[in-house]
Amino acid sequence: LHARYVLNLLHETRRHLKQLPNISHVSTCYSEEVTVCGDLHGQLDDLFLIFYKNGLPSPSKSYVFNGDFVDRGKQSLEILIILFTFLLIYPKEVHLNRGNHEDHMVNLRYGFCAGLSVASRVHGKKILRMFQNVF
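^ Serine/threonine-protein phosphatase, sequence as received from the core. Prediction below:
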């Protein structure tokens, strides 16, 4: 995606997240299923496997992602774009909890910052600042 679209997505995600409480309550009944995921760590194939086995987020398919979306793997940016997009499309069905890897110092150490700089050489710093703001 062009940097302008990534920044727009980040802006809209930030605006949405600011409206939410610090604690999310996810309620379900016996007939509904909630998929809980954690520690994707930049492994896009893992996210695709989860969606393949459980279905894409939808009004009838809720997901809770328990943080650690980034670092270590090479496709952290793609994971965040997908998760933030689903969050905006299905705000009642997709829940994102912040993990310890959604932190600037951890990102510096484990690779998200460096990977983002390579992915977007021209706008990398601006995009990184916006990601940190969303985190």
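Residues 33-132 form a domain with the Purple Acid Phosphatase; chain A, domain 2 fold (CATH 3.60.21.10).
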